[in-house]
Design a protein that fits this description.
Blueprint lengths: L1 H64 L1 H13 L4 H28 L1 H8 L6 H26 L4 H36 L4 H31 L1 H10 L8 H23 L1 H15 L4 H42 L3 H28 L1 H9 L5 H11 L1 H18 L4 H23 L5 H27 L6 H28 L3 H22 L5 H5 L4 H10 L4
């Protein structure tokens, strides 16, 4: 029995690690393809793309973004009791729900693109990109149901592989379509004597990849469902339980599960669209030219946010893995297991996010130069990244703790915490723009404050309701110390190679490689991770074997 429990605990980390690894790969692919797209569109085109994507993300959140979480939560609760037929019926009902909600949202965005682009984000040129994105909402809604079903069954592999497939197609189509439509827009500008058609059409081309990637991901998941249909049918036939909720009861359960999640995720993520609207309206009131405003926002969204979102994806993946795992532990009334899963998830996220924050701060300008070239705004981009690198830690922690609270069935708390943080966040943003005249820097500071406040509020609630206190030394202090050593090594290597080789590409790549090795060695020497924790990771036994040979453990 003990062996079985140990295997289940290890499997939770393995599944979370698989999803985290896939998320990192997806973010890296996203980072790689956004580099040529950013060079094609420039800051202005990036601003149009960002405006359209913020509206799309908001409508996706409201209509169907919470479906994977809700499905995984409901399915895992039934699978924990062996109710396979009930779990499958929930999956079928959510597909119908996704078809309706996703379809309505898609139509609303397509026909309301003019209103959203002009009134909500104050970027009329983003209308075309928003219309191209509209059908993707329906596709993502359906795909989310299938991913949630697999996650509820305890397998993150289909979700992980589909994410990678989706992103590869997204990258290829985005680059090609952005280039082709930017060229077309350039010809229109010359013909009509305008100056924004190239950026507008280029942004629309970039969003075309999002839809193509999502459609490919959905087709892949449906293929997996079809391939394993016989196995799934056999499992349902073996289920002798008579307890299957009616369709009406399922939709009620779905609603009471989804609604708080929609509120929490919407309030938590709406800050992006509010930031854009508030920033652009206030900058217009301060007599800034619209092209300069779009350029500033394009730098923030296309370079700063692009880089900081990569490590945050790890926290998002661990949250997705934590919710069904915590739900199973809660259903089985295993409070000790809930605490163990929470501790491991938080430690895992901090081990990744803290060094990423330090690395982005130390190598901000070299990394930006490597990715986007030595542009005239490189100093601004670098200072934004150095200043905002701390947000990686806070957003990582707040994203994960949101998932932990949802897995504990405390659905209202993330909503309340996000609402409180959002109100104070907007107040600070307005104060910093109008009072301190910080322009785009104000957005970075306000974002750090928002994520920090979410961390504090979520952590207090977890401590209160789980009667749990996170271990401090190995979770926070050791990764911070190892990251400081890593940062010093990376900085020294980069400076030394720039003085000798005089190549930013060689110096930056070498510094990054050295940073990874130094951080890993420092973390092991400082006892940041135990052997059993490393063994819980995919291929963790290889890491342990190498570490022991090098006398690091």
């Amino acid at each position: 029995m003990a062996k079985k429990n140990s295997k289940r605990k290890s499997n939770y980390i393995v599944q979370g690690s698989i999803l985290a690894a896939a998320s990192i790969i997806v973010r890296i692919i996203g980072l790689v393809y956004r580099v040529p797209v950013t060079r094609i569109l420039g800051p202005v085109g990036n601003s149009y793309y960002s405006a359209a994507y913020e509206v799309y993300s908001m409508m996706l959140l409201i209509s169907s973004f919470s479906l994977p979480l809700a499905v995984s939560k409901l399915v895992s609760a039934r699978m924990a009791k062996g109710r396979v037929k009930a779990a499958y019926k929930i999956f079928k009902c959510t597909l119908i729900f996704a078809l309706i909600s996703g379809g309505i949202a898609s139509l609303l965005v397509f026909f309301g693109a003019g209103f959203f682009s002009k009134v909500v984000v104050n970027t009329p040129q983003s209308k075309l990109a928003l219309q191209v994105l509209a059908p993707t909402i329906l596709v993502v809604a359906l795909m989310g149901c299938v991913r949630g079903y697999f996650q509820g069954l305890g397998s993150m592999v289909p979700t992980a592989v589909s994410q990678i497939v989706e992103q590869v197609v997204n990258a290829a189509v985005s680059i090609g379509a952005a280039w082709a439509l930017f060229k077309y827009g350039t010809r229109l500008d010359a013909l009509l004597s305008t100056g924004t058609a190239a950026y507008a059409y280029g942004a629309a081309g970039s969003t075309l990849g999002t839809g193509a990637g999502a459609l490919t991901g959905l087709v892949f998941l449906l293929f997996i469902i079809f391939a394993y249909s016989r196995v799934m049918k056999k499992r349902r036939q073996m289920d002798k339980s008579d307890s299957v909720e009616s369709t009406r009861e399922i939709y009620y359960l779905l609603f009471v599960t989804i609604f708080p999640v929609i509120l929490s995720t919407a309030v938590y993520n709406i800050s992006g669209i509010i930031d854009q609207g508030v920033f652009k309206h206030l900058m217009v009131s301060k007599q800034y030219q619209s092209m300069r405003i779009d350029e500033l926002w394009g730098i923030f969204s296309g370079e700063y946010k692009l880089l900081t979102n990569v490590p945050i994806a790890v926290a998002s993946a661990m949250a997705s893995s934590a919710i069904p795992a915590l739900t199973r532990a809660r259903v089985n009334k295993d409070r000790r297991e809930m605490r163990r899963k929470t501790e491991n998830a938080i430690r895992f996220v901090m081990v990744v996010c803290i060094p990423c924050a330090v690395g982005l701060s130390v190598l901000a300008e070299p990394v930006l130069t490597l990715l986007f070239g030595a542009k005239n705004h490189i100093q601004l981009s670098a200072s934004l990244l150095q200043m905002g690198s701390a947000s990686v830690v806070f957003y990582g922690m707040s994203t994960l703790t949101n998932g932990i609270l949802q897995g504990m069935d405390k659905m209202r708390l993330p909503v309340i915490h996000a609402a409180v943080s959002l109100v104070l966040h907007v107040a600070l943003l307005v104060l910093l723009i109008l009072g301190a005249n910080l322009n785009i820097y104000a957005v970075v500071w306000a974002n750090i404050f928002f994520a920090f406040l979410m961390c504090v509020l979520n952590s207090r609630s977890i401590a209160r309701y789980m009667r749990y206190r996170q271990e401090i030394v190995r979770t926070f202090l050791v990764p911070l110390a190892a990251s400081a050593i890593m940062g010093a090594a990376a900085f020294g290597i980069h400076k030394g190679l720039m003085a000798t080789v005089k190549s930013n590409t060689v110096a930056t790549l070498s510094a990054c490689a050295v940073a990874v090795v130094v951080y890993g060695i420092s973390l092991l020497l400082l006892k940041g991770l135990k052997e059993e924790e490393i063994l819980g990771f995919p291929k963790g036994y290889l890491v342990v074997k190498i570490a022991k040979k090098l006398h690091l453990m």
